[in-house]
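Thread: sanity check for a docking pose with flavin mononucleotide

Original post by kr_44:
Hi all, I'm comparing my docking run against an independent structure prediction. Below are the sequence and the ligand SMILES. Could someone generate the full complex and paste the C-alpha cells? I mainly care about where the ligand ends up relative to the chain.
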Amino acid sequence: MYTELMTCLTTRRSIRRYTPDPVPPDLIEQMLTAAVWAPSAHNRQPLRFAVIETAVTKQTLAAAMGQQLQADLQADDVPPHVIAADVNRSWQRITQAPLLILVCLSMADMDSYPDPARQRNEWLMAVQSTALAAQNLLLAAHALGLGACWMCAPLFCPDVVRQTLILPDDWQPQALLTIGYPAESKTKTRQPLSTRVRYY
Ligand SMILES: Cc1cc2nc3c(=O)[nH]c(=O)nc-3n(C[C@H](O)[C@H](O)[C@H](O)COP(=O)(O)O)c2cc1C
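Reply from moderator J.T.:
Ran it for you. Here is the predicted complex with flavin mononucleotide included:
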C-alpha cells in the first residue's frame, strides 16, 4: 500500500491543459467521496463543493472574476497589456477546463467563541480541513487518470464568486479546482528533505 501511495503522491502534478472530453459523473462522485474522507476538525466536515460543468456558468464566472482581476490590477497601476494578458489567461483557464470544482468552507457546524483569537483559530481549522479535502480530491483525480490544478483566485474575489454562483450565505470560497483529462505532462522537483526538517 505504501509503494502505491507514494507513486500516487509523487507522480501527481498540477495539470493546467485538458482535452475537451467531459469528466464522467461517476468519476466526479469518486473524487468528491475521496474529498469528504479527509480528516477534519472535530469531524465537522466544514467542506462544501460547487460542481460546475456547464459552459454558460464557467463563462459567467470567468467574466465576473476577470472584471475583478482587471479592477485590482488597474488599482495597482499594472500596465494595460499585462492586465489584458492576465485577464485572458484567467478566462482561458476557467472556461477551457471540462470541470470546475469550487472548494468552499462553512463555519455553520464549527464551534464559536466569544473572543476573536479563538474564533480565528476555529476558522483556521476549517481552512486546514478544507485544504486537506482538496488535496484528497487532487490525488483521487490523479489516481483516476485525470489532471487537476488548484487556482487560488476565488480567495481574491470571494463576494464576486458567491454572488455569481448564488452560493449559500455561509459558503466561503477557498479555491477553484480545474479538472479534466490531461493534455500536457509536467515534471517537478522538491527541495531536499534536509532543508525542510529539523529533528529534535
Ligand atoms: C494553496 C495553493 C494555491 C495555488 N494557486 C495556484 C494558482 O492560482 N494557479 C496555478 O496555476 N497553480 C496554483 N497552485 C498550484 C501550484 O503552483 C503547484 O502545486 C506547485 O507549483 C507544485 O507543482 P505540482 O502540484 O505539480 O507538484 C496552487 C497550489 C496551492 C497548494
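The two ends are 29 Å apart (CA to CA). Hope that helps with the comparison, let us know if your pose agrees.
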